[in-house]
Amino acid sequence: MIRDRSIRTKLALIVLGPVLVMVALGTAVVRPALAEVGDTDRSARLAEFVLASMQYRDQVEHERFDSIALTGGAAMVTPDALAAQRAETDAARSHLLDVAESTAITSFEADIADKARAVLDAAAGLDALRADVDAGTLQDPHAVDDAFRDLLAPQQDLQVILRSAGQAELVRAGDAITAYYDAEEAFSDLGAFVGAGLHQGMSPEDRRQAVALEHLEEAQFDRFGLIGDPAQAAALRTILDSDLHEQFETMLDTTVGSLTGSLAATPDEWWPVVSDFFDVINELEEEVFVSFVDQAAATHDAARSDALLAGGASALAAVVALAVAFGFGRRLATRVRRLSEEAHEAAAERLPAVLAEVGEVDADEIADHLPTVAIDGRDEIGTLADSFNAVLQTAVETSIDHVQKRAEAMTRVLTSLGRRNQALIERQLGILDGLEARVEDDEILDGLFRIDHMITRLRRNSENLLVLASDRPARNWSRPVPLLDVVRGALAEVDDLSRVDIDLAGVATHTVVGSRAVDLSHILAELIDNALAYSPPTEPVAIRASAGRDSVRLWVIDRGVGMSPDELDDANHRISSATDITEVETDRIGFQVVGRLAQRVGVTVAIQPNPGGGLAASVDLPDDIFDRGQPEETSPLAVDTPATPAATPAP
Fold this sequence. Notes:
3-stranded antiparallel sheet; Heat Shock Protein 90; about 70% helix; 3 domains
């Protein structure tokens, strides 16, 4: 019966001819054309961003010259002239930001996006540099020159962006632009460096560096002359043969040509020539870049036209194919419609109910609970029904995959939040260190110390996020740390440390391997913090140690409210079994952090009742956690702790 014949045979009779036409057009023309459109659009956007960044760079270079000259006391630059140039630079920077947004340059592949962000971040730092110049923080012209050079350093990576344009002709043009850019950058550095030297004097080493910059400039201009557009190369030769360039070369040679002797030019003679010649070579640079942008845009327009033509032809072929297939397709409509209705019922009504209770069904029984659609034939439609049944079964596996992805997403969120918080906390601690070093008032200094201590506790909470996300600690130490200093480091991250009594007996000088010291200190801080929080404010918390044959056991003992047997079992389970990120509970997160850290460090942590009331937490340190060498004289984890009360009872 025709009903049971292969659907491949049926469809071959329906759409054999039209499909061949569509496949030929789609494969040979449409897909390559669409890919070309995407590539050329990307190239055009890259070119537009590079042009805007170069225009911004040119204005910054002018501001660089004026700032150096004004700092050095040149008469030819006034504050009003510098302010006018800054306005030009601000306009170019605003245009750069607009182009970055319109081209979505930061959404490109990671390498290009990172380099574009570096350029934009550097542009954001221009205002701070200006403030330093105006405030006199940068006290000499060379310091101003170095600051502007650092500001423009990310521009050097633009050559990578140019060379990723994609099309061969654009890559070649990008190489030529890179050569011209390097030459112009070398000229800018040369002009600024020598100009700063004219204000301050030039040593023999300064003169040799100036000669090296001159050679770099000449080499890159020669390279552009070889690989650049012939007309543009000829224009460059005309510039280099001009009287203005000859004047610059003469002034440069007489100034730095001899490694001894006085400077032959004054700043007021030097800066106008440098600025004028920079404008001349910048005009040609503008032409080179505009030509590159126009070439990229023309390539994109041509590709888009080809894609539209190919798409139109493919659409026409599709219409013809559909017209031919329509009559034959109606014969299959009834069976397909029935299959569609059953599939919709299974997916919309029965499948959600099964997925909702999948957690209560054993893995071996999943197939028995899944809905199915009827298989009414042995051809491809029947196979489709059977495949749909398989999809329903696969839905359970997909739901598990979603859970895993959700866990990964949560991990990334925790890691991001933890890292950001850590960065802010470290900056706060740095600021506080500076304030503490300058403040002499005891009352204010005590307040700063309290704030410092609170921020240190916040850092531990931030690190808890990273621990839950299974991320490595940002802090680490490569040298061995005395066990006593590890405990003191933990005290620095808890509240009311004056209530803690430490007695490590004969193991205080044992040194912990540096790579494990921070995590061990974190474990102790969580246990000590928990003991302080759940014991009366008048009761001390004791830290004790006992040495075994192959290990050392630390005790954190309190006389607090304690736990019920069920709560103790739950706490020890959280410590011994690192919970999946999607199952982390909001209460008693500290135990879950301790458990993850204990697995990472290789120690064993357990909570038990204290015979004298409260709890006793034991931390078993294996022999391999200790470094048997000599302890360091200064430990990074050591903190000053106040006098502590008498010892609490032993466990």
